[in-house]
């Protein structure tokens, strides 16, 4: 997109609006890694990153490209002490899966999106459980992941309100003619 | 109908064409990189530990500062809801304090006698150790891997395999130490193994984590009887930890491996003490 026709103040305003989405991603990342003084709570608390990756992959995939989720995953592995690449792989596959299926969610009712998120988050945690079991050479207890998936599902409606609020600040990207490629949708 | 639905959600249907980084080839490259990193991290952890340490040194201060108000909030909620329990505990602590003052005097005289006897026997004492208090910055967030990040490191005389304690007893050990941060492995982690001794029967064993809220005793001789509620202490074998650090107590002797519950409550841990070098653990004066 060409922004040269905008004045300086308009460019600043545009930058601020787009930054809101990235500030939200950073906030979700930080909230995911905060320590609340309770190891049990740490193990079952919902993952804000899964919710935000899902939301932006459906409604604004260019905001959250796969290289960004890869970097966030690597940083998450560094902070948590998990094998490097574990969260990176999980996030990249999550983002790719949702991006390929976004036509199913775009324009659908809230309940459909919520149900879709539930399915995706269960698949995400099942994948993590399987991968960790392989890495640790033993089958891990999946109970805490089941709690995580359930809490993520229950908190998604609240999180989606926040995401939609930030989304309302973002500038639109309209196309007059369809372009070939992956994931483009025309709005009339 | 579909067009009307699109119009109704117009603001959120506006999207854009996916960029280069979302094409299958790019995703494949990133997946390949992730798998490569995982294999390197799993089978050759030392290769990436330096990079990981430097990265935590950079990120930890930010996370630490942001988490401070959240931890204060959690503590505040806990304080408000636990007032009645606090009053009860206060009464118990006052009684215990009185008994401890009596023992303090006895301990001082025994310490003097012990020092004198050791001098006579020419016993070599273990090197003295020092504690440094650390704040827990973040945890794993998964029940499969029980590690935590703390805000002390090599610059605070913390090194790999240093013992990590709470006020009640041993919590774990340092597995990675960078300049300003360290990662600790909790005793309940499935990869944790600790040489211990069961008080009373003077039986040595290995305390193994189970990823649950308890640990188990392994490598016990066949036929040995472990009493219920026996205290478990570090044995000092291997020279990693000193002898006598309280670990937990035996809560179940059913099954092949006795279960041990740690003295430390891992569900209310904000600060820990990390044992360093060159500190004499003597008996300090009690406050007046």
Overview of this structure, please?
The complex is a heterodimer of chains A (188) and B (288). With 188 residues, chain A is mainly alpha-helical. Chain A is built from eight helices and no strands. Chain A has helices at residues 8-33, 39-44, 48-59, 66-80, 86-100, 102-105, 110-136, 143-167. Chain A is globular and about 60 Å long. The two termini of chain A are 19 Å apart. The model of chain A is unreliable at 173-188 (pLDDT under 50). Chain B is an alpha+beta fold. Helix content of chain B is 37%, strand content 23%. Chain B has helices at residues 2-8, 10-13, 24-43, 45-81, 83-121; strands at residues 131-139, 147-150, 163-165, 170-177, 182-186, 193-198, 203-209, 215-218, 231-234, 246-252, 259-262, 271-275. In chain B, the strands form two sheets. Chain B has a six-stranded antiparallel barrel with strand order 1-2-5-4-3-12. Chain B has a six-stranded antiparallel β-barrel with strand order 6-7-8-11-10-9. The longest helix of chain B has 39 residues, at 83-121. The model of chain B is unreliable at 1-18 and 278-282 (pLDDT under 50). The chains are: A mainly alpha (188), B alpha+beta (288). Chains A and B meet through helix 1, helix 2, helix 4, helix 5 and helix 7 of A and helix 1, helix 2, helix 3, helix 4 and strand 1 of B.
What pair of chains forms the biggest interface? A-B, 71 and 68 residues
- Which strand-content bin applies to the residues of chain B? 15-25%
The helix-and-strand class of chain B reads: alpha+beta
Span from first to last CA of chain A? 19 Å
The proportion of residues in beta strands of chain A is under 5%
State the strand order across the main sheet of chain B. Answer: 1-2-5-4-3-12
Major sheet description of chain B: 6 strands, antiparallel, barrel
Q: N- to C-terminal separation of chain B? A: 81 Å
